[in-house]
Amino acid sequence: MATGELGDLGGYYFRFLPQKTFQSLSSKEITSRLRQWSMLGRIKAQAFGFDQTFQSYRKDDFVMAFFKDPNVIPNLKLLSDSSGQWITLGFASGRLRKI
Question: What is the pTM (predicted TM-score) of this model?
């Protein structure tokens, strides 16, 4: 997509940043607290970048574009309530796909 060109989904183009780390989730103190609260392994942080300036008055367009973006759908991980497994946002035949 050319710079300044609006995308099909509200003008935003997202990219997955798999190498981005979050020190706040891996410190010894935080890891200990997550374990204490039975949350260790049940919380995950992922990073995505986007190519437009965020404008708060377009927040609804931004959110809708994010969840429909072809770079987000296969990469965004969610924790399934029913199975406790990490799954992707992507839909295959109307059902969530496991990762």
Answer: 0.69
